[in-house]
Protein 1
Amino acid sequence: MNTHVPVAIIGAGPAGLQAAAVLAPRVDGPVVVFDREAQAGGVPRHCNHPGYGMRDMRRVMTGPAYARSLVKLADRAGATIKTSSMVTDWADDHSFNVTSPKGRDTVTADAIVIATGARERPRAARWVPGDRPAGVFTTGELQQAIHLEHQKVGSQAVVVGSELVSWSAVLTLRMGGVNTVAMVTESPRPETYAMFTYPGSLVFGTPLHRSTRVVRVIGRHRVSGVEVEQLSTGRRAVIPCDTVVFTGDWIPDHELVRRAGIEIDPATLGPRVDAGLTTAREGVFAAGNVIHPVDTAGVAAMDGVHVADSVFDYLSHASAPGSAVKIVAEAPIKWVTPSAFRAGGRKPPAGRLLFWADRYVPRPTLVARQDERVIGTVRLGQAAAPGRVFHAPWQLVAGARPDAGDIQITLG
Amino acid sequence: MTRDVVVIGAGVVGAAIARELSGYNLEVTLIEAKGDVGDGTSKANTAICHTGFDASPGTLESRLVHSGHQLLCEYANQTGIPIDKVSAMLVAWDDEQLQALPGLKAKAEQNGYDKAYLISAAATYEKVPDLGPGALGALIVPDESIICPWSTPLAFATEAVSRGAELMRDAAVTGVDVGQSTTLVHTTKGDVETRWVVNAAGLGGDTIEAMFGFDRFHLHPRRGELLVFDKLARPKVPVILLPVPSKMGKGVLISPTVFGNVMLGPTAEDMTDREDTATTAEGFDFMVDKARHLMPTLLDEEVTAAYAGLRAAHDQSDYVIEADAATRYAVAGCIRSTGLTSSMAVAEYVADLLKQAGLEMHRKSDAELPEPPKMPQIGEQAQRPFEDADLIASDPAYGRLVCFCERVSEGEIRDALHSEIPARDLGGVRRRTRAHNGRCQGFYCGAHLTAILQSSVREEI
C-alpha cells in the first residue's frame, strides 16, 4: 500500500514524540510517528528510576511515566503514532518501506524526521575476547529484562563503565535482586564522577576499579567471571560473577541514515546536522540521540521541539539547504554537535553546542578558529568529563563565515 | 526395536548420511551429543560452497567436493537453503603469489573445474575497490558460493526425520558392545541396538573409532576465530576474497555471508581442549593485522560478533571413508572444512560402501518419499517474510518484528520453536531465524526473545 503524508517521524522516543506534538496542530494533514516497538516512548520506557521530565514536563518523573506522558502529549496534539511499525529500508529519497502486522506499506513524506536514538555497543563491538556464555548484557537489555519482562538475570554482577548509565545499571541490578560485585572503568579519575561515585559506592557498597579494563569473559555456558587488567601495572585478576553488563559506549542507530546515503559525521557516527537539525538532504531532519550519543531524554525532547520549527519552515517554503561548513572538534573532544554551520540559520536547541570529551579537563577553555583565525573563545564553568555531555554557547561559532572553510574547535 | 543403522553425529556430514540412508527401507537413528543439529564444528565454519578448484587432484576429497558442490547447489535451490553464487577472488600480493596463480588455474582444471580465469591488477581493483594497496592481479573462480551453514544440516536432518529417521539429541555415545549380529550403542540418553553404525562424529571421530577397535587417524581441535562485521560493510565485499596459498604463512579470507554481513578469518591454532571455543586478544590482533593489509576500510565498520569454531585437524592427507563388514561399522572421518560442500556426496559414497559391505537396502519409491523440506527464508538473496505483503496478510505474526537488526518476525520465531526439529534454546532460535544475530546483540530484542523462549518452554512442560 502507498500513502503520502506531509510529515513522517521515525522513532517514537522523546525527540520524535515532542516533534510530533508540536507539529501535529500546525501542519495541514497527518503527522505520523513510526516506531518498531510495541509501545511508544523509546528508551525511558525501561529506565525505571526518577530523573525524567524536568526539562519539558516541569516535574520529576520515572522513565516509564515520562514515556507515557510524551505519548499522551503527542496523541492529544493529534499526531498518529504507529507502533509495531518498522521502517526497514528506503524506496527513494523521500519514501520508505514499513513492515507492521497490518502489512507492508510504502510511505512518502514531504518532510522526514529521523529520531532513531542510540544504543550501547555490545561486547563484540568493544573487542572483548573470551568465551560466549549466557549472562552478558548491555544496560538496555538488562533494563528490559528486569523492568519490562521481570526476569531473573543472575546473582553477582560486574558492571563495565562508570557513566551515568552505569549507575542506572547498578540500580536496575539491585531492583532485580542482583548484587554488583564490582564496577570496572578505564577512566583514571575518580573526581570525574564524584557526584555519583561516592554516594553510589556508599549506597551500593560497590567497589570501583579505576584505570582497569576487561580483557576476557570467562564461562562455558554461564558467565563465571571476568578477567581484568590494571592499565598502569598490567596486573591481571579474575573477578568471579555470573553476570556482566557492558554500559555506555554509545553509537547512534544510524542504519537508515547510512542506507539513505545521507552524510554522516565521522565523530558522532550520526547524521551531520546544522543548527536547525537539517541533514545534508533536503527535507530530511534528525533529532535526539541519533545526533548526540548520548545526552539525556530531556535534551532529546528539546531537539524534538526545536526541529519542529525547522520542519514547519521547510513545509511553508521548501528550499534546498544552502552550502554549509563543517564544525570539527579536536582531541580530547570526541564530538561536537551541531557539526554543520550555515550562515543566517537558526541557533541550535537551547542556543548550545554539545560536546563529548575523551578525558577529564577541569576548567576548559574552548577556542573556535576558521582558517587559523580565532572566531570565538569561551571559558566554561563546568568540567569536561568523559561519559557525559558538556556544552558551550553558540556564540563560540556564530561569527563564522560560510566561505572560510571548516570551523576547528580546540579545548585547552 | 533394533535399528538398521545408527549414525553418530548430527553435524552436516552425519545429517546428510541420515538423510541419504532414510531414503532406503532402513530404520535409521541419528544420534547427537549436543542439544541441536549442526551445533559443533558445522556451525562455525566459513560457510562457503566450494567448487573444489584447489583440492589435491586425484583424492577422494577432490572427487566428493566436486560432485557434492553440484548436489548441494541443486538441493539448496530445491529446499530454500540460502545460497548465493558471489564468486571468489584469489588476490596476489607479491610476485610469488602472482606466479602461483596460473598453477592454481591449471590445478582447478585437473579438478574438473575449467571456468577460473586470471585478471589484471586494474581489473582486480575495479571488482573490489576497497582492497588495500599492492594487489598485483587475481584469479577469479566464478562458481564459488556462500551458503547458510546452519540451514544445511537442519535441512538434511529435517528431511531424514520426515522420511522416518529418529533423531536423538543430547545423547553422547559413551561406549559400544559389538555383538554377533547387532551392536549395542550406549548413550547418555539410553542404549540403542542396531545392525550397523556409521561414525560421523566430527571432532569425536577418533574416540568412536577406538570404541570399534580401529586406530586409523588421530584428531585434534584446531581453533579458528572469526570476526563478523556489520551489514553496512557488505557493499565493500562483493566477492569471497580467498588467500593464495604461499610460503608467507596462512592467509585469511574476507567473505560476504548469506545474511548480508562480512566475515574475516579464520585463525588457526592447534588445541587440546575439544570444547574451548573462546576468542582471544591474539586472534583479534592477527585478524586486524591481516585486514589492515587486505582491506583497511573494513576496520572502519563495527564488529557485530566474534566467535571461534573448532575444526577437526588430522594426520591424514585425504578423507577417511571406509566400511568394515566384520564389525558392521563405517566411518566418515578426517572431513575438514570442505565437508559442508561435500556432505551429500559423502552420504552417497557411504551408502554405496554399506551396500557393498552387505547391508541389504532398497531405495524407497518417489511415492514413498515425502517432499524435501522448505527451509525458512533467512538469506538476503531472496524475499524475506518481513517483505512479503501476502504472507503478512495471511498471518500478521510475520509482520510483527521481534529482532529489528535482522528483521525477524514473531511468526518465524514461533515456527522455529514448533518445526520438525524444534529449537530448544536461544542458539537454536538464532540458527533457524537469525534473531539476536544483529548489530545490537540483544540490546533491543534480548529480553523479549528470552520471554518468548521461556513461555515456549512452559508450554512444553
Protein 2
Amino acid sequence: MEQILLKGLDGGNWRLADYLKRDGYAALKKMFADKMTPEQVIDELKKSALRGRGGAGFPTGLKWSFMPKNYEGDKYLVCNSDEGEPGTFKDRDILYHNPHQLIEGMIIAAYAMGIKAGYNYIHGEIFEVYERFEEALEEARAAGFLGDNILGTDFSFQLHSHMGYGAYICGEETALLESIEGKKGQPRFKPPFPASFGLYGKPTTINNTETFASVPWIILNGGEKYLELGRPNNGGTKIFSVSGHVERPGNYEVPLGTPFAKLLEMAGGMRGGHKLKACIPGGSSMPVLTGDVMMDLDMDYDSIAKAGSYLGSGAVIIMDETVCMVKALQRLSYFYYEESCGQCTPCREGTGWLYRVVDRIENGMGRNEDLDLLLNMTDNIQGRTICALGDAAAMPVRSFVRNFRDEFQYHIDHKHCLVSS
Amino acid sequence: MFEIEIDGKTLSVPPGSTVMEAANRLGIYVPHFCYHRKLSIAANCRMCLVEVEKAPKPLPACATPVANGMKVKTHSDAAASAQKAVMEFLLINHPLDCPICDQGGECQLQDLSVGYGGVESRYGEDKRVVPNKNLGSLISTDMTRCIHCTRCVRFGQEIAGVMELGMAGRGEHSEIMPFVSKTVDSELSGNVIDLCPVGALTSKPFRYSARGWELSNRRSVSPHCSLGSNLTVQVKNGKVMRVLPLDNEEINECWLSDKDRFSYEGLNSSDRLEKPMIKQGGEWREVEWTVALDYVARGLKDIARSHGAQGIGALASPHSTLEELHLLQKLARGLGSENIDFRLRRSDFRAFPKAPWLGMKIADLSILDRVLVIGSMLNQDQPLIANRMRQSAKKGVEVNVVNPTSDNFRIKLANQAVVPVAEMAAALEAILAGLSGKGKGEAKAIAQSLKSGKNVGIFLGNIAEQHQDASRLHRLASQIAEKCEGKLGFLGEAANSVGGHLVKAVPASNGLNAREMIEDPRKGYLLWNCEPELDMMNPAAALAAMDKAEMVVAFSPFRHRAHEYADVLLPISPFTETSGTFVNTEGRVQSFKGAVAPRGESRPGWKVLRVLGNLLELEGFDYEDTESVMQEIGIAGYAQCDNSIDAEPDALPAAGGLQRIGHAPIYFADGLARRSESLQATRLSAAPAAFMNAKLLKKLGIEEGNPVLVKQGEGEARLNAALDDRLADDCVFVASGHPQTSALGALFGAISVERL
Amino acid sequence: MLSAESKKKIDREVAKYPADWKQSAVMAALRIAQDEKGWLAPETIEFVADYLGMEAIAVYEVATFYNMYNLEPVGKYKLTLCTNLPCALSGANDVAAYLKEKLGIGFNETTPDGKITLKEGECFGSCGYAPVFLINNRKMCGSLTFAEVDRILAELE
Ligand SMILES: Cc1cc2nc3c(=O)[nH]c(=O)nc-3n(C[C@H](O)[C@H](O)[C@H](O)COP(=O)(O)O)c2cc1C
Ligand code: SF4
Ligand code: FES
C-alpha cells in the first residue's frame, strides 16, 4: 500500500538530511526546474482531487484558486496544526516525524498563490513538536529552501510558527486567524471569507497540516497519480488516527476507500477480542455509527457521508460493548461546553444546557421528556451559530440519542446504567 | 444597485448593505441585541435570524450582505422559530428579575421576550450567577443579567478609543469586566449604559431612584462644551432624575459625554443657592428678592456716581444663555460701562476673532481628509469631536497635532509635534515654512500631510485660545489654512463661546476686557454664573480684585467662594430651570425650555436682569419671555460667524524657565460639573498635582510624589510632584479650576517648582 | 519585571509578525512570562500589555481564554491529564483516580508541600498515546500505566 506521508519514518529520521534522502524538496526543485506556473501548480492540485484534511473536506485546488491573483499588498498562507479534535493525532506525527514535508508543501502553496509570508499554528499542548518544528524551519532557511530568493529564484517566502495555548476553537480557521492577531480565538462571521479578508485583513489561505504535507508528492508525481491512489473525488491517501478499544492505537495511512474492516485489522483488531459496539469515524464532532454499520463501510468521504456520518479529520474512535453510551456522550458534551468560545447565544447557552441534561441522565436523574428536549435543542443550535462548533456539539448528541436511544431510555427509567448492570 | 425583496416588499439597495439595513429602510423591524448601527458587526446574539430563500439555514440579518434578487422573510415560521429558539437560550441563564431591575420598562430583552419568549421555561438546571464588578462611580453592574452582546466592549474599542471593558473567560464562563480593579470612566463611558440592551450596566447615580415610566422627558441642550449636545432631561416630581442623549446625527449622534450625562447631579446638590442674600456688617442675611435687587441697584448707582460707570465690570461665564449674556451686556452698557466680557480664561487680547467658530458644520468634519489640531486636550474639551476625528482617522484621514503634551487623543495620529508650551508659535511657523518646502522634522511632516490634502481643517483648541500668545497662534493658523486652502476653525470652549460674541458680551475698544478688569481692579463687579478664582485666566489676581472691590454681586445657581468677597448673592436658575439659547460651535442656534421649576427662590437669569434693568430705570427691559429677548437679538437658525484676524501680533519675547499649562480638567471646567459627586469621584477628577516629565523632575532634583511648592509671582500652592512623560520639556502641568490651585496666577506663563 | 532573557525571547517572537502587529506576540509573551514567573499575576499581565503596547484588559482577555495560562499560582509541577473520551477509553480515568489517591489531592488542587498541582485537560491531540499527561505545559508523557506514573512522579524533584 502506497504511503506518502508517513513512509519510512522511524521517529529519528526527521531532519533535513534524512528528508533529502527521501526525495525531500525534490518537488520544489522540480517545480522551479520545469518552470511551472502558479496556475499549473493549482491545476495539478485540482486534478489530484485532494480534499482538505482538516475536517470539512473542501477541494484544495479550488480553495487555492479563490485567492486574488493580481493583488497589490500582502497575502498570507496559514497552516492549521491546531489539532485538538478528540481522537485526532495525525498532524502531530507529521510535524514531529516529517516536518520538512509540511514546509515543502507550504512553500509550493505559497508559490502557487503568490504569497510571501506564512504561519503554522501549532496546538499548545505539543510543545516538543513546536520546538522541533522551529528547528526544522531553521534548517530549511539555512539550506536556502525557505526565506529570501528560494533556491536562487526570485521567489521568497517567510514561514514562522505560532503556538496555541489551549483552546480547541482555534482549530476553526477564522478563530485561528484572530488568535494569530493576538486576540481571543473567537471565530469571525463569514462572509467575508479568508480569501478576501483573512489574517490582518489580507487575503489568506488556510489548510490543514496533512493537506499541505500531501502537496509535494502531488507535484512530484502528478495530480492524476494521486487521484488514482484513492477513489474518484476522493484522491490519495489519508491518515486515520485510530484510538480507543483496539489492540494497537495509532496513525494508519491508507488509500481513501480502504474498507473499515481492513483498517481495524491493521490496528490489531478489537482489544481483548471484544465486540465493536460503536465508532465515531471522523473525530468527536461527527455522528457516531453503530458497529454493524461500520463493518460494512469503506473509509472515504462519500461512503461515510452516505452512512450518515462524516470522514471529518479521520479520527476513528472505537468503542466496544463495555462502553456506556450515556457516559461517553456526557464526556463529549462536557468538552464542547468547555470549549465553546462563548460569543453566539445558541452555542454558549446551548452547550451548557446539553451537557447538564446528559449529565443528569448519566447520574440517574433523567426525565422522560429529556430525550426529546435534547433532540429539539440540537435543532436549535445546529446551523444557527457563527462557526461549526455549534454543529459539532449538536451532532454527537443527536446521533448518540438516535442510534442508542434504548440505552438512554434505560438510564432514565432505571436510574442506572444498562452496560454495567 | 441590488433589487431585493423582504416580506414581500421590494426595494433596491446599494451592494454591500446588510439585510438588516435594508429591512430598516423598509421600516421592517428585525429583533436584535448585538447589532448597533454605530458599532462593528458582531453577529453574536443570533436574535436577528431570518429566512433567506435558497439558504439552507436561517441567516443573521445584521451580518448578511444583500445579494441581487435575494428574497428574505423576517416573520415566516422558519424565521420566527429560529428567533424564539434564540430567545429561549438567552433567557435560560437570565435572572428574570425585572421587578427589581433598573432597566425594567426600557429593556430590549424584556420587550422582545414578550413577543418571542415561551410561556414556561424548559430549563430546569441551576442558573448561572455572575459576580458584579466595581466599575467606579458612574456605572452600576448586575452582571448576571448580561447577555454577552459585547456592545459595551466594542463601544470602548471603536468609539471611546479605549478598551475599558473586555469579555474575559470563555464560553459560558465569559464575563464582561474591566482589568482587575480599573474603573470605567473615559469621557464617554456612560454611553455603555444606553448601549446595554439589558440591565447589566445601569447608571449608578440614577440607581433605584425611579422607573422609566415614571419619568417625563424634556428636550434640552447641553450647557457644557461647545458642541451643544441634544439632551433628554428626565424629571420626576419637579426634580431632574437623569439625562440621556437625544439623537441628533448632525451634532452628538446618539452619544453623550459623561459630563453631559452625569453633571445633572450638580443641579440637585446641597451647594445650590436657594435665597437671595446680602452681607451687612460682615454677616450674611437671607432677604427677599425685592430687597436684594433694590440693594444692588442702589449700589451700582452709587459706584457710577462716585467713580464713574467705568468703575463697574461685568464678568459672565461662557456657559450662560444667550439671553442672559445679551441682557447683561445691555445692562452694563445701560449703566454706561463698556466693561463686559465672557472670555474669562483668555489672556491674549492683542487681536481676537470676531465670532470664532468651528469654521464648518460639525457633520462636515467627516469630509476633511487632513486635520491639524493646535493646542487641545481634545478628549476632555471636546469628547465627541474627538470621536468624529477618531472615526475619520480609522478611515485613513491624517490627523496631525501640535501640542505641549503628547496626548494622542486615542487616535492613530499621522504626526504630532510635541513642543514646550512657550514654543507653540514657533512650531506653527515651522509648519508654515514646511508648506513652502523648507523646514524639517515633525513640522515638515505635518506640512507635507496638510499639503497632500484636498479638504484640510486647522483647529485651535482651548490651550491655543487661552495661551499667552493666542493671537499669534490664531494668525499663524489662519496663514497655514490659507496656504493649504483649508478651513480654519475654533473648537470652542463652552456652550456659548460663539454666542457671547454674537450678542457683543465683549467690550468695544473703550472698555476693559476680562483680563484688564482683573489687572486694573474695578470698584464693583457683576459676576454672572462664574467663580473668578476657578473660571478665570488669573485666579490669584481675580481673587485680589474681588477682595478690593466695594461691591461684588454674584449671580449664581450655587453658593461658592463669593461668600468671602461678595456683598450680594443672587440665586439664578441653571439651564434646566430656565428657558434659553446656546449657539454651538457650528453657529447653530439652539433654544430650550426649562425642564423643572426653579429650585427654592432661584429665578431664571433673564428675569432677574429684566427686573434689575427696570429698577435701574434702563430703557427696553420689558420682555415677556426669552423668545422676546431672542427677537431683539435677532439670530436664528445658523448664526453668521467669522474666524478672520486682521491684526498682526508681534512675537512675544522668548520665555525662559518653566512654563505652566493650566488647563482646566474636564470636570473642573464649569460650576455644574464641579458639583457632580459621581463625576468628581472619577479618575479624571483626581486632585491637582504638579506634573512634569522625567527630565524636568531630574533637573529639579524632585521625585515623583514629593511635596512641592509651586509659585507664580505672589501666588503659591502646595502640591505633590507627579510624573507625566507625555509633557514637553520645561512644562509644568498644574490644573486650574480647582480650589487647590486657585491661589496661583496665570494659566499659561512662568511658574517655579521647588521641593518642600 | 521580566528578566532580560525573557524579554529577548519575547522580542524574537515579536519579530515573526509585521511591524505594526506586535500584539500577535501576546500569546508567546504570556507563555514566556509564565515560564519565568510560574503564573500570570496582574502585574505580569500589565507588564506584557505595556511591553506590547496593548490595553491590559485585552491581554487579560487572552490570558483567560486559553486555558494553559495559570491565573493563579500553581505547584512547582503542574500535571494536566487528558480525560477526554479517547483517553478515557484507554484508562485515563483510572490514572486520574490513581493520581488523586497517590497525591492526596483532587483536580485543581495542589499538594500541601506546593510541589504538584493536578489539572484536568481537554484533548491534547495525542489520543494514540493515551492516557497522557503534560508536565508544566511542556513535557508530554504518554501510554501511562500506574508503574509509569510512579516512575515519573519519583523523578520530579
Ligand atoms: C470547531 C472547529 C474545530 C476545528 N479544528 C480543526 C483542527 O484542529 N485542524 C484543522 O485542520 N481544521 C480544523 N477545523 C477546520 C478548519 O476550520 C478549516 O476548515 C481547515 O483548517 C481547512 O483546511 P483544509 O481545507 O486543509 O481541511 C475546525 C473547524 C471547527 C469548526
Ligand atoms: S458556534 Fe460557539 S464556538 Fe463557534 S463562534 Fe459561536 S460561540 Fe464561538
Ligand atoms: S443582531 Fe444579528 S446576531 Fe445579534
